[in-house]
Automatic annotation (TrEMBL):
Protein name per Swiss-Prot or TrEMBL: Ran-binding protein 1 homolog a
Cellular compartments annotated: Nucleus, Nuclear pore complex
Transport recorded as keyword: yes
Any one Gene Ontology cellular component term annotated for this protein: nuclear pore
InterPro entries in UniProt: PH-like_dom_sf, Ran_bind_dom, RanBP1-like, RanBP1_RanBD
Keyword Cytoplasm: no
Amino acid sequence: MASTADVERRDEEETNEPGAGDDEDTGAQVAPIVKLEEVAVTTGEEEEDVLLDMKAKLYRFDKDGNQWKERGTGNVKLLKHKETGKVRLVMRQAKTLKICANHLVVSTTKMQEHAGNDKSCVWHATDFADGELKEEMFAIRFGSVENCKKFMEVVEEIAESLRKSEEKESEEASSAAGLLEKLTVTESKTEESEIKEASASTEKKGEAKLETEAKAGEASSLA
């Protein structure tokens, strides 16, 4: 009959055998239940270059409630289209990526410091964030005075560049209109001169014909 010491020694040997107590590896591969495919996500910003990208908090003035309402916290961007050169201001909420501001920077865009807060500025814009054009008054607050000033300076530089471009186009259009007017006047005078010359020529021909007929009549009467 095996002693207690023999039983304990045998149990210890079985426990120490390689692989004893380990999960058996069958080599089977488990395929995922659902296969996810990569989907290309477009933001609408692929054809634009980033001129400015800063974190900020945006507010919209509620005319009905006569108060400022928060639109969201996220990154405000100034994007320049690679072909048209137009610049737009876009801001998305950080977590949801919902657009809370989306409008063009135009020649009339003007940034103003927010009274009582040198980290903030305000401006008016025709915004398209909600899917329709609406006149809005925005206020934006940055984490530092330096960021606020930089934002205002970049927007003002863009607006100033647009104003100069529009003035140049206006001057060119006026110059072209002046040249066209001068050309029209010159052509009119030339045409008038040609008519007068043709009329004078016709009168001379008529007088010469009458003179010839008169001489022919005199010669006939003498004969």
